[in-house]
């Protein structure tokens, strides 16, 4: 008997040796193409280290479960895919490992796609340990998706993806037919690095389906990923098929939410949402549709409101069109914890019955959530929250059971949805608080809802079977051991660069070209100090990095006279350009601009900061170009005078707009003839931060006399506008501003002398964009 | 060792003996209630044989899988539940067996309901071997459902259900929350007997969900059932959740379809649809939504068109509202056979772009089917079909592969969707044809679509693995063995009564009350012959069964003079009343009606036939009452004259209407002052046959002079109208008729002299009812 086993083992060994892996080392695209053509199950194609320029790779092969076909870097991270490149997969059981996409963009609609053509979908294929960094289209308005899933059982894991600034989701899963449903795709262990604010929709980091797939079974698993500053739009993840899982992900300072947009029956379990005081846009979980289970999630300092609320349970539209909002029903929210979040529970979000006059009936979200349960949750605040629950519509369709609030030990009574209690919480790290006294009886009063026994563990894996408490954390010991280990996410060979701290200061005299040269020499984040008192700038200064230009002597402003050609700008803002000017006086004759972005290839954002400056005599202070986008424009203690136009951010149509955060504080506008501030968005949808315009403590004198439409501060279509503590004097204008009452438009303490009025229009009729 | 096993066995035996079934014999409702209160797992409650009057049974108990709790008839079929009765179940593992519901109705909204109250849903409960016969509400307009499913894993099997004539589906499955989805309900081996035409919606035999559950997983199994003359409305089965199965059912002469209305991903396999020449309303499968697999189905003489086509693949509405039509996509139709059906494939059904002026955009079905495949099907016609395929919209979103047509051996070329071929078919029985020559190469050209290999068997269970042919039948031998065995469906103790053939003839003289007495004595289907020449009817004759009243001497008409009180009718039509008058002359003075249904409790249909009669001097020939419904009104060779009104079928509102099939053939209308024919439906939906008005070969003279609206034949809202070969002469009226061009309204060969015109209005604007 033993001999027989030995014999069989030997045969098996022989058999498996015969099938050993064949390595095919390829040095260029031609060799690669040939290798792919001839590939057999078990083969291992190895890409030579180095730069692969314009690599249009269609990787087709039929591997098997036991003998997949691999395409990999000779050394992980040392194979750079650059230029006009992509990698599309088709066939079965293919693996891709260790590639680095940079310095280029895909000429197609995807970089990595799990489909080559309609008859060559990928199934059981995996891309792992790969980086895509800034591989973004040159034109922000041209759509692509970086990673596109088709087929079934495909996987993306341990990848690092960052820097998409053009139109289109970073990752999209398609469900276009029976070959592409019930997918069991795995999107796991990835690091989704920063994605800048895009302005407007189609900038999700992950989108699973579309409105037409809302009845389709997805079974996509998005788990154990790290999302950092994924700020593209209001939806970090947009779930649009059924039965998907979102588990154990970390959302770190992302200005958006995990949105259950058109999907139903999703499982949202064990996720961590970390925000902070620096932004009011960090979001949580937004709930639409039916049958979701939201369990064991932890939220810290998520301060987003309304659509971005830490928990936003939306109102639906009765008999909604396919692409709008299904009424929420049968949703379970249990065992979650919110710590120091602003108004964490918002129920009936999106209720807009008052807009019935300006919107069609099929847009009116009048149907409140029904048949849902919110139970066993904890809200813990170290400072009192005035309104931990905001009821936008009706909350009686939700059963609230055994929820606990410790509102800095101040009793909350507005809605009867909590027990008030006092918790002893241990601060484990910057963002993690866990109950210290597990014997606190109030923690042990657990409500057993229908099927709750299927929730077997807490957020950190502690069993709920033996001992069970409310909130996300059931076990202090395991919580204390928990640490975010960024190494677990993305490729093991790659670490995202930390912000450099070795900021250098350059000195620039007024000698010809010296300032331009110093800008060229400076690295991202450096500072240039101007040592003389007068500079003549004959040609536009190109700004394509983060740079500060300031007077060395903080007490004496430096004068810069721009003498460039007509229609050119003193500072030419390039993609990723980020300039801060301090204590400068900018002077020009007419027909010139202070700042302007490129007219084309403005593939990424720019930002603009000024403090203590004066701008005098320009045609435009800033003139946006079509497709350009300013992440931030912050102007402080600055005088703008004798200009033909001020800041014009109005170059785009159809819902695109030209800037996100625009702030003026303690500024003086004097004799700016038109477009003093013109911030415009044409058309309306909700997948947007804004834009956002704040004007504080500023004065406007003798401005706007050439404005054809008679409005001094134009904000048509802008969602967030605040005008506070300003003085408007002797501006020959009909309206100082026309605000949109229904949206987040406000004004306070403004002094208006001989300058028209601020008018508030509650409802504005705009083109709907979907 | 052996001893130990013996010992353990003995202990187990002892243990199981101890747990033996406890039978609780109950004689009345009080005892039953007590028994239910005290019941334990494994108990068997036995209902004493006999009539149980007003039995309001809430059967609550917690059985176990191994030890269910049973409630059963002492002798199956000998326990009659009558009066105001119902049986609602709550708890787990309950069985109900052998009951007979008759002579009554439920005072609640259900007879059998798998839920007592919100906190007592039934799970794992079964009702078997039970009959519900005519247990219908006294008022047709009051809604109930006879069998209502909630919970999960419930079963209805071997039941016989017939005769529901009031508003509401016969069987409904609800999905109102997480406790009621993923149900795995079993609706199997039942006999769904005749359900009469209801007129209008909410008369499905089975409805699984509603429009709001279109995203929900149902997993309901409706298999091996027999449906006979389920004519309630256009949908026999309405599928409105996902992942449901409809397998091996037989639809025998049902005037409706299996409609995949709001559900997706259903499996429709191995069903048999049998129609016939006698009706144009027998339907097949109607397809909406996504991901259905329609395989191995057999259709014989299904002549329905449009919504009722043998295969109706609908157009959808772009971004449809929740309750309207989702575009068809990803549907697979393969291995089906159509024999002698009329235009069996209708694609883009419901396309109504031309109605854009009268309907809101959210009603316009402009989106044709996409990404679908129709392959390996057979159409076989023993007479040539001019248009086996009707393209209502666009068919290029469907791939047609390896379909075969034998159009009585005449080549079909209109659309390139078939191979033409000649089949040798064996006629196995009245309705079943199977290919005789399995070696015919054209049968063996099978297209292998995506995932087709999951279709392992043909309609009769023959394996497709070894040998495979197109069409539903893969194996002649198994087809020849197939026979419909009605005994397999419904309870084994019950057989639906066959139509009696022992029709009796009664003779009635003109002696006082003799006619009325004979009507009383006659049984359903009998005939009364009038032997004298003149009868005076002093009181309304009550008609509550099927009866023929005719002159004994077919050559001499018999005169009946009605002298009843004002506003009474010569023939009072009661529920299920069905009268045929032959060779009679009916005479009255004013203020009397010839026919009228009851004003209340008109719980079932009536029908009215006349041949060779004359009606003279009545106020109304027929005046419908609110909620009354005539299945058929056929009047032939009959003179209607000197009446104030003719046939008025206009008593209802909101989509209800008063008759289904109304036909006049070779009739003469003379001096009928108003409402000559007034057939009215207010409001519009599509879940309806009609009504249907045919007027052939008739003359209208000097009629309509008192008609206020100026229309002689009023058909507002009626979907099917045909006016052929009639003569209209000297009618002082503006319009003979106002027809609805968009619907099935037609006129031909009419002669109009001095009588206005027939006007056709293509689009009519009606209130939509949903």
Automatic annotation (TrEMBL), chains A, B:
This is Alginate lyase. Pfam families: Chondroitinas_B. Gene3D superfamilies: Single-stranded right-handed beta-helix, Pectin lyase-like. It comes from Algibacter mikhailovii. InterPro entries: Pectin_lyas_fold, Pectin_lyase_fold/virulence, PL-6. Transmembrane segments: none annotated.
């Amino acid at each position: 008997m033993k001999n027989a086993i030995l014999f069989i083992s030997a045969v098996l060994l022989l058999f498996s040796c015969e099938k050993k892996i064949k390595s095919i080392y390829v040095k260029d695209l031609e060799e690669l193409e040939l290798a792919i053509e001839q590939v057999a199950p078990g083969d291992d194609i190895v890409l030579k280290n180095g730069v692969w320029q314009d690599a249009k790779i269609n990787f087709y092969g039929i591997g098997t479960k036991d003998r997949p076909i691999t395409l990999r870097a000779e050394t992980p991270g040392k194979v750079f895919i650059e230029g006009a490149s992509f990698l599309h997969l088709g066939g079965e059981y293919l693996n891709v490992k260790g590639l680095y996409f940079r310095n280029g963009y895909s000429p197609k609609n995807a970089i990595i796609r799990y489909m080559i053509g309609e008859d060559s979908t990928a199934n059981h294929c995996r891309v792992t340990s790969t980086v895509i960094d800034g591989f973004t289209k040159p034109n922000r308005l041209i759509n692509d998706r970086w990673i596109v899933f088709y087929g079934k059982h495909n996987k993306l894991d341990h990848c690092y993806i960052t820097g998409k600034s053009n139109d289109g989701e970073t990752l999209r899963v398609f469900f276009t037919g029976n070959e592409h449903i019930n997918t069991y795709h795995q999107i796991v262990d990835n690091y989704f690095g920063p994605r800048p604010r895009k302005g407007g929709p189609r900038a999700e980091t992950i989108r699973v389906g579309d409105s037409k797939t809302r009845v389709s079974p997805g079974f996509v698993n998005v788990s154990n990923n790290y999302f950092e500053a994924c700020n593209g739009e209001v939806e970090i993840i947009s779930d649009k098929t059924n039965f998907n899982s979102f588990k154990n992900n970390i959302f770190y300072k992302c200005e958006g939410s995990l949105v259950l947009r058109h999907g139903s029956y999703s499982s949202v379990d064990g996720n961590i949402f970390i925000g902070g005081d620096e932004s009011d846009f960090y979001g949580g979980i937004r709930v639409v549709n039916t049958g979701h289970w939201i369990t064991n999630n932890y939220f810290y300092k998520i301060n987003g409101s309304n659509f971005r609320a830490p928990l936003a349970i939306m109102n639906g539209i009765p008999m909604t069109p396919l692409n709008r909002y299904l009424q929420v029903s049968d949703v379970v929210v249990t065992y979650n914890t919110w710590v120091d979040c602003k108004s964490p529970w918002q129920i009936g979000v999106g209720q807009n019955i008052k807009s019935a006059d300006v919107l069609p009936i099929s847009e009116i979200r009048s149907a409140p959530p029904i048949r849902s349960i919110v139970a066993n949750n904890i809200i813990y605040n170290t400072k009192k929250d005035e309104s931990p629950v905001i009821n936008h519509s009706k909350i009686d369709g939700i059963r609230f059971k055994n929820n606990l609030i410790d509102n800095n030990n101040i009793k909350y009574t507005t809605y009867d949805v909590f027990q008030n209690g006092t918790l002893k919480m241990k601060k484990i790290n910057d963002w993690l608080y866990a109950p210290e006294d597990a014997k606190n009886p109030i923690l042990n009063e657990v409500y057993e809802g229908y099927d709750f026994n299927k929730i077997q563990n807490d957020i950190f894996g502690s069993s709920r079977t033996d001992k069970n408490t409310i909130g996300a954390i059931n076990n202090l010991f395991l919580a204390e051991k928990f640490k975010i280990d960024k190494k677990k996410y993305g490729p093991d060979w790659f670490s995202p660069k930390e912000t450099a701290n070795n900021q250098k200061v350059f000195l620039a005299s007024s000698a010809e070209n010296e300032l331009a040269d110093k800008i060229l020499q400076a690295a991202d984040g450096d500072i240039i100090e101007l040592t003389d008192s007068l500079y003549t700038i004959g040609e536009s200064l190109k700004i394509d990095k983060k740079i500060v230009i300031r007077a060395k002597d903080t007490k004496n402003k430096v004068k810069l006279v721009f003498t460039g050609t007509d229609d050119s700008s003193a500072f030419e803002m390039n993609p990723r350009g980020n300039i801060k000017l301090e204590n400068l006086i900018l002077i020009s004759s007419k027909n010139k601009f202070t700042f302007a972005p490129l007219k084309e290839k403005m593939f990424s954002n720019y930002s603009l900061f000024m403090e203590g400056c004066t701008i005098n005599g320009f045609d435009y202070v800033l003139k946006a170009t079509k497709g350009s986008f300013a992440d931030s424009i912050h102007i402080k203690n600055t005088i703008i005078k004798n200009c033909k136009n001020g800041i014009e951010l109005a170059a785009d149509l159809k819902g695109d707009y030209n800037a996100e955060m625009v702030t003026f504080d303690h500024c003086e506008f004097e004799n700016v003839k038109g477009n003093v501030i013109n911030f415009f968005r044409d058309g309306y949808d909700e997948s947007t931060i804004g834009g956002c315009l704040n004007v504080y403590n500023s004065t406007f004198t003798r401005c706007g006399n050439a404005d054809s439409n008679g409005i001094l501060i134009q904000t048509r279509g802008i969602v967030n506008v605040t005008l506070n503590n300003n003085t408007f004097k002797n501006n020959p204008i009909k309206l100082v501003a026309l605000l949109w009452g229904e949206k987040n438009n406000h004004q306070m303490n403004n002094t208006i002398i001989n300058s028209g009025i601020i008018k508030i229009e509650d409802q504005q009729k705009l083109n709907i964009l979907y």
